[in-house]
Write a structure and sequence with these properties.
The protein is α/β, with parallel strands linked by helices. It has 14 helices and 24 strands. The chain is elongated and about 65 Å long. The chain binds uridine-diphosphate-N-acetylglucosamine (UD1).
């Protein structure tokens, strides 16, 4: 890409990657055809589709209509192999539904994004409290509950998104009631709760940090629309600010991005909330803004690289603190190749804004880092080439095409 263009125009956001993958797993909880709408055309959806097929489901994805239909057999198989799980750590979200539905799940231990050591201890401890036996054998996590799961009290050490989701999906079919305390409150979890309720699950406290689940005997398939992707929406917003542009983001939920949009206002942008999204207008060089990542409703770690890119060209200095994934700063060495002035000390990054970055070849190290590097390339002088863009394809549908529509000088090569 050649830097310098101003992003202007309209872009529409699809359903959230971090929701749809869990909703696809949740479909396993009921026999029959579940329909998901607003499903994004991204690599991770294909990987999850392949995983569900291996479990015995039929999966049809109409990419143009953004509709995904999953037909779940009466007896799904229960093994998720390493070749798929290593491609996508989120595969672990079939653990809860499979134990609940089949009484057993054998999941290869995951790889996925290179963004820090992400433990599964809370997933395992929660399943054990629900009565499952869990062991690790030959690289597989094996969870068994031949006589079903039993409702219980679970208090998470930390509001982990993945653990909350797995335990929620496990407990909807357990006998009796389960309380998950210190549950994560991300909008994607609210979305999963709403889908489960549509399937017949009984869940109280949706959107809060205490979820109360009354187990039911069986669930039914559902037709559900995936919540909008707040991280993609936020990425467009940051792009508008960095390029001093004017972008309307449609089909987005501004209230899911409160802190991030407030930060953009502090950086000097004007943000207007619309019925179906928001508009971001910027007419000056942004002012640097401090960031501290935290579980929702705190600032999302998935927008941290994009905000480091913004700070790299801002007026002033900013301190960015990463509290969720220690290795999320790895991409900074790539950003430095574009001339960014960033110093890392543990989980803090001090960014001193520069008037200009200069184009260079850089490598995407994970999906959000890739997005951050593309945004940086859009404002760098000359040509920037981002390699390993398959990471970006994992989370951003038609990213290059959308950027072109907004006026960026960018193309995909190879
Ligand atoms: C999800 C999102 C990811 C986002 C993250 C935080 C998906 C597919 N991914 O990841 O994009 O950045 O939420 O919003 O939805 N942890 C443990 N033990 C556990 C579970 C987690 O120590 O049992 C730690 C992890 O190592 C990490 C932190 O908790 O440091 C947050 O992890 P978690 O909230 O579980 O994130 P994910 O579900 O993996």
């Amino acid at each position: 890409m050649v830097g310098g263009a101003r992003l202007a125009g309209e872009v529409r956001v699809d359903g959230a990657k971090n929701s749809v993958l869990k909703l696809m797993a949740a479909a396993l909880l009921a026999e029959g055809r579940t329909t998901l709408r607003e499903v994004p055309h991204i690599l991770d959806v294909e990987i999850m589709g392949e995983l569900l097929r291996r479990l015995g489901c039929e999966v049809e994805h109409n990419e143009r209509e953004r509709i995904l239909v999953i037909d779940v057999p009466s007896k799904p198989s229960h093994q998720a192999d390493y070749d798929l799980v290593r491609k996508m750590r989120a595969s672990i979200c079939v653990l809860g539904p499979l134990v609940a539905r089949c009484g057993e799940a054998d999941i290869a231990l995951p790889g996925g994004d290179a963004i820090g050591s992400r433990g599964l201890d809370m997933h395992v401890a929660g399943l054990e409290r629900l009565g499952a036996s869990v062991a690790v054998e030959h690289g597989f996590l094996i969870a068994t509950a031949p006589h079903g799961l039993t409702g219980t009290q679970i208090r998470l050490d930390f509001p982990s998104v993945g653990a909350t989701e797995n335990l929620l999906m496990a407990s909807v079919l357990a006998t009796g009631s389960t309380v998950i305390d210190n549950a994560a409150r991300e909008p994607e979890i609210g979305d999963l709760c709403r889908m489960l309720v549509g399937m017949g699950a009984l869940i109280d406290g949706i959107g809060s940090s205490t979820l109360e689940i009354e187990g039911v005997e069986a669930l039914r398939p559902v037709d559900h629309t995936v919540v909008a992707d707040r991280i993609v929406a936020g990425t467009w917003a940051v792009g508008a600010v960095m390029t001093q542009g004017d972008v309307i983001v449609r089909n987005a939920v501004a209230s899911h991005l409160d802190i991030a949009l407030d930060k953009l206002t502090s950086a000097g942008a004007s943000v207007e909330v619309l019925d179906d999204g928001f508009r971001v207008v910027m007419n000056q060089r942004p002012t640097a803004v401090d960031i501290v990542t935290l579980p929702f409703p705190g600032f999302p770690t998935d927008l941290q690289p994009q905000f480091i890119a913004l700070n790299a060209i801002a007026d002033g200095s900013a301190l960015v603190t990463e509290n969720l994934f220690e290795a999320r700063f790895r991409f900074v060495s790539e950003l430095q190749r574009l001339g960014a002035d960033v110093r890392i000390d543990g989980h803090h990054a001090m960014v001193r804004g520069r008037a200009e970055l200069s184009g260079a070849p850089v490598e995407a190290t994970d999906v959000r880092a890739g997005a951050g590097l593309v945004l940086a390339g859009l404002v760098a002088d000359g040509v920037t080439t981002v390699t390993e863009v398959h990471h970006v394809d994992r989370g951003y549908a038609h990213f290059v095409e959308n950027l072109q529509v907004l006026g960026a000088d960018i193309r995909r090569v190879g």
